[in-house]
Design goal:
InterPro entries (chain A): LexA/Signal_pep-like_sf (IPR036286), Mito_IMP1_subunit (IPR052064), Pept_S26A_signal_pept_1 (IPR000223), Peptidase_S26 (IPR019533)
Number of strands of chain B: 10
Strand content of chain B: 25-35%
Radius of gyration of chain B: 20 Å
Radius of gyration of chain A: 14 Å
Number of helices of chain B: 2
GO biological process, one term (chain A): signal peptide processing
Distance between the termini of chain B: 73 Å
Organism (chain A): Ambrosia artemisiifolia (Common ragweed)
Subunit structure (chain A): Heterodimer of 2 subunits, IMP1A/B and IMP12.
Strand content of chain A: 25-35%
Strand order of the largest sheet of chain A: 1-8-2-3-6-7
Largest interface: A-B, 18 and 20 residues
Structural class of chain A: alpha+beta
Largest sheet of chain B: 8 strands, antiparallel
Oligomer: heterodimer
GO cellular component, one term (chain A): mitochondrial inner membrane peptidase complex
Chain lengths: 133, 175
């Protein structure tokens, strides 16, 4: 989740009510149970909610090949901010909303959490615009 | 003054008991009302009603079961466990089904020669009444993280109080 969070351990506030009420949405950083190991909690950002069309780079270190999926009902698409080194929905697919456990809060008060930082790959900026259009 | 201190005592007791009840139902066990016929005849067996072919289970005869939550600390489930889980299609709905496959098992897809391997951290759930059950045959294997508890006993109606046993699956390929 670089550069949003540092490599050294960071302490953040986790808010558990939004995910219970269904208020977590695109752009939020959330904590979820890993679909491959229910005892492991991972931190990722929600990229798309159900019904969204997601275009993602499958393997950014090696190629530019992209794939497009539509997020099924009741699921969300999560990705780490550091797509070069993140094991996320590009590997394990969309996750059911019921696995989300909490949202990092507040989303806008902390300088580094919130919208994606501007210092990103220009290729990713194109993807972001494609997702929003 | 005595009335206000009495009201204050009532408030304190209800808050305490409410908190204890919430903790117990969240961490140890709770009671769940079973609706629908997907687990017939294990839960909500058909009545011998005078309507003939139409068997109806109303709210007065639905089963209420005890769901234990201690299994959620290490997620060790076995084939045949009856579990409560959040539906992968709608996290607000809770469903009750039986686990018929665990990670690493191969499940045969109906009407085809394919077999699907259940991925790590997932399980395959099916209702005991296959004709009336929306389960993994429609939405695929579910992550274990969606499980909210395991059913241990039927608590209501009184004539059906019994322990819910593990039943091994009768069909499907399990290697």
């Amino acid at each position: 989740m670089l550069p949003t969070f540092n490599l050294t351990n960071e302490l953040v506030l986790l808010e558990r009510i939004s995910t219970r009420n269904g208020k977590a949405g695109s752009g939020d950083v959330v904590i979820l149970q890993s679909p491959e190991n229910p005892r492991k909690l991972v931190t990722k950002r929600i990229i798309g909610m159900e019904g969204d069309k997601i275009t993602y780079i499958v393997d950014p270190k090696n190629s530019d090949r992209t794939e497009t999926v539509i997020v099924p009902k009741g699921h969300v698409w999560v990705q780490g901010d550091n797509i070069y080194n993140s094991y996320d929905s590009r590997n394990f697919g969309p996750v059911p909303y019921g696995l989300l456990k909490g949202k990092i809060w507040p989303s806008s008060a902390f300088g580094s959490i919130g919208k994606r930082p501007e210092t990103v790959d220009p290729a990713l900026k194109v993807l972001e615009q494609t997702n929003q259009s | 003054m005595r009335t206000t201190s009495f009201i204050w005592d009532v408030c304190k007791s209800s808050f305490t008991f409410g908190l204890i009840g919430l903790t117990v139902s969240d961490r140890f066990a709770s009671v769940v009302h079973v609706q629908g016929l997907s687990m017939s005849p294990t839960f909500n067996p058909p009545n011998n009603s005078s309507l003939g072919l139409l068997t109806v289970n109303g709210p007065s005869t639905d089963d209420h079961v005890m769901v234990e939550k201690r299994c959620l600390t290490d997620y060790k489930f076995s084939h045949g466990d009856v579990i409560v889980f959040s539906s992968p299609r709608n996290y607000k709905e809770k469903q009750i089904k039986r686990i018929t496959g665990l990670a690493g098992d191969w499940i045969s897809v109906p009407f085809s020669y394919d077999a699907v391997r259940i991925p790590e951290g997932h399980c395959w759930v099916e209702g005991d009444n296959p004709t009336d059950s929306l389960d993994s045959r429609s939405f695929g294997p579910i992550p274990l993280g969606l499980i909210r508890g395991r059913v241990t006993h039927i608590l209501w109606p009184p004539q059906r109080v019994q322990k819910v046993d593990r039943k091994l699956p009768r069909s499907g390929l399990t290697f």
